[in-house]
Design a protein that fits this description.
With about 150 residues, the chain is mainly α. The chain has a domain at about 105-140. The protein contains five helices and no strands. Helix 1 (about 20-70) crosses helix 2. The chain is elongated and about 90 Å long. The two termini are about 25 Å apart.
Length: about 150
C-alpha cells in the first residue's frame, strides 16, 4: 500500500512561486533602504572620527602649553614632551613596576615583518586545505540536487 503525501503539501499550479516573489520583493526593499541609509551612517561615523581627532589635537595643544610653562621652551620632539610631562606631573608613562616594558618600541625590523607575513600567509594557505579537500570529494551534480 502506497501512502500519498497530504494535499496541503502540494501547491496548486497557479500558486507556485508566490513566496519566492515575495522574498525577492522584500530583499529589494531592504536593499533600497540600505542604499538610502548607508551614506547617512558613513557621514555619522566620519563626524565621530573628526570630533575625536579634534579632541586629541586639543590634548596635544594643552600638553605643549604645560611643557612650555614648566620649561620655558617648546619640546624638540615627542619624546622630550613625554619626559617633560612625566616630570611635570610626577608620574611615569608605562612604569616598569606596572608594565613589562617601560618604553614603546617605535621601529620595525624587516626580518620580523617578513617572518610575520610568512606565518600569516602560511596559516591562510593552511586554512584553505580542509574546505578544498571536502569540496574535492563532492560530486557537482549531487551538490545541486535538492532531493
Amino acid at each position: 500500500m502506497k501512502l500519498s503525501p497530504p494535499d496541503r503539501c502540494q501547491a496548486k499550479p497557479s500558486e507556485e512561486g508566490y513566496i519566492l516573489v515575495a522574498v525577492i520583493f522584500m530583499l529589494a526593499i531592504m536593499i533600497i533602504a540600505l542604499t538610502v541609509a548607508a551614506p547617512k551612517i558613513a557621514k555619522s561615523i566620519q563626524r565621530e572620527r573628526e570630533l575625536e581627532t579634534m579632541h586629541r589635537g586639543k590634548q596635544y595643544s594643552r600638553a605643549v602649553k604645560l611643557y612650555y610653562k614648566k620649561f620655558g621652551a617648546y619640546p624638540a620632539n615627542l619624546e622630550a614632551l613625554v619626559h617633560g610631562l612625566e616630570h611635570l606631573l610626577g608620574t611615569h608613562f608605562l612604569d616598569a613596576r606596572v608594565y613589562f616594558m617601560s618604553d614603546l618600541p617605535a621601529h620595525a625590523q624587516a626580518g620580523d615583518v617578513l617572518r610575520i607575513c610568512a606565518v600569516a600567509f602560511g596559516l591562510c594557505a593552511l586554512a584553505t586545505l580542509y574546505p578544498a579537500w571536502r569540496a574535492a570529494g563532492t560530486q557537482p551534480a549531487q551538490a545541486l540536487r535538492h532531493d
